[in-house]
Design brief:
nine-stranded mixed sheet, globular, alpha/beta
Length: 502
């Protein structure tokens, strides 16, 4: 739903052409800025030498008549009013909550393999394959599975999936309402995203019913968009908050592990069994200027990239039935390379909006050298560490994190929130970005003015970015999030290969 929103001005224009138009525009503006800076400096120095008497003489020489003054004043008032009405509304993130399941739902790697073997569905080769994936997955021993899976026998039914979804959604929302002191009836917009589980009534309707939200609420349920749907939901919320003044928006992101647990022996589908785990998050947004003082972050940018026109990208994460008619999500070997290409496209659009001029000039010179002068040199990778203090990269898997660390030339410190989230909670799909941000907050790293880059990848294939500015320094002592009680145990060393005694 609402996966594509083509502007009438860009409809039918190839993505690469749109990117280049944006690049040329931003580089032109920055070039003009660089040229004008010396002139403005000279003018400022000259004006500083003028006395008050000089300004009075200049005013007397102009001698404006009353009609001119009235017309100019009216024009200023009209333009100011038009700007005030049409200016973009600021979007504030008041607070958010990540769901932390009960300890009874923890599932070690050994226990997972025991459950799989006890089912009698998987062949010995499939069990060994899953063991091999788990040993290299980067997951720890305290990740969570829903009750429907850890129970004996497992309950892979609609009721089991609904119970898991409601446990995650309602748990996260209850914590968020407690944190913010908000009343459920004050929420004007509701957006729920879940990739695999899309029942009728929808999950958004389940939230409306449970919390008795008002009957004129704008409710949206996004499905089938994969792990990047969380940022898509934020982007949709931003657009809706532009046209609905003085409104609160609740965004809920989760994935249902119950129905995504594959019962078969097709290897590309077994990978999801090994990395996806239970989790979810609820986020409260506002466009009220009065909420700025109590908000944590302000939304700066959202950039969405869709590579679905390419067959390889479209098919690299695909849900279908295997030869035995068992439903599963197949991950191809092209996922890592496709994610890398999607990221390149995304940062082409994001870079001019966030990078300092010095980095943009280096990138532009490199681009001219390669495209115009035909120089055989490597493309210049901008240093995004100059644009952001914190990186929240979707914890989709160890291979993807390794690829992005290399591509963006990030340090272990920058990658720590993503790697520790993968280790402690596994791949929680679209909600993983919020567990990562919560990690940085629990460590006391987020300071006023810091910039946060959330990067998400998902089926389709999509790469989406959200940029946030911290409005205040986050004090861990006053925070309640899933890391607080155990943050001193992290970071931990995650070996490339961790043997499983099974």
């Amino acid at each position: 739903m609402a996966d594509e929103k083509l502007n009438s001005k860009t409809k039918g224009v190839p993505l690469k052409k749109i990117d280049m138009k944006k690049l040329r525009y931003h580089y032109l503006i920055n070039s003009i800025y660089i040229i004008l800076m010396p002139l403005l400096t000279i003018m400022s120095v000259h004006i500083s030498t003028c006395t008050l008497e000089d300004f009075f003489k200049l005013w007397n020489q102009l001698t404006p008549d009353p009609v001119t003054v009235a017309l100019c004043s009216s024009l200023v008032v009209i333009l100011s009013t038009f700007y005030y009405i049409s200016r973009p509304r600021n979007v504030y993130l008041i607070n958010y909550a990540c769901y932390k399941p009960d300890p009874s739902l923890m599932c070690s790697k050994e226990h997972f393999l025991q459950l799989s073997k006890k089912l009698g569905i998987f062949s010995d080769e499939s069990i060994q394959f899953q063991k091999k994936i788990l040993e290299r997955s980067g997951l720890g021993q305290k990740v969570y599975f829903p009750e429907s899976i850890v129970r004996d026998p497992p309950d892979k039914s609609m009721n089991g999936a609904r119970k898991e979804a409601e446990m995650v959604m309602f748990g996260a929302i209850n914590e968020l309402l407690a944190k913010t002191g908000m009343k459920a009836k004050d929420i004007g917009i509701l957006i729920v995203n879940c990739g695999v589980f899309n029942p009728t009534p929808s999950l958004s309707s389940a939230v409306v019913n449970n919390f008795k939200l008002r009957n004129n609420i704008l409710s949206y349920n996004l499905g089938g968009m994969g792990c990047s749907a969380g940022v898509i939901s934020i982007d949709l919320a931003k657009q809706l908050l532009q046209v609905n003044p003085n409104t609160y928006c609740l965004v809920v992101s989760l994935e249902c592990v119950t129905l995504s647990w594959y019962h078969g022996n097709y290897r590309p589908m077994l990978v999801t069994n090994c990395i996806f785990r239970m989790g979810g998050a609820a986020v409260l947004l506002s466009n009220r200027s009065s909420d700025r003082r109590r908000s944590k972050y302000q939304l700066s940018q959202t950039i969405r990239t869709h590579k679905g026109a390419d067959d390889k990208a479209y098919n690299c994460v695909f849900q279908h039935e295997d030869e035995m008619k068992s439903m599963g999500i197949a991950l191809s070997k092209d996922v890592t390379s496709v994610a890398g290409e999607a990221l390149k496209t995304n940062i082409k659009m994001l870079g001019p909006l966030v990078l300092p001029i010095s980095e943009q000039l280096l990138f532009f010179i490199n681009l001219v050298a390669r495209k115009v002068l035909k120089k055989n040199i490597k493309p210049y990778i901008p240093d995004f560490k100059l644009a952001f203090e914190h990186f929240c990269i979707h914890a989709g898997g160890r291979a993807v994190l390794d690829e992005l660390e290399k591509s963006l030339e990030l340090t272990e410190w920058h990658m720590e929130p993503s790697r520790m989230t993968l280790y402690r909670f596994g791949n929680t799909s679209s909600s993983s970005l919020w567990y990562e941000l919560a990690y940085s907050e629990a460590k006391g790293r987020v300071k006023k003015g810091d910039r946060v880059w959330q990067i998400a990848f998902g089926s389709g294939f999509k790469c989406n970015s959200a940029v946030w500015h911290a409005l205040r320094t986050i004090d861990p002592a006053k925070e309640k999030n899933p890391w607080i009680d155990e943050i001193n145990e992290f970071p931990v060393h995650v070996p490339v290969l961790e043997r499983i005694g099974f």
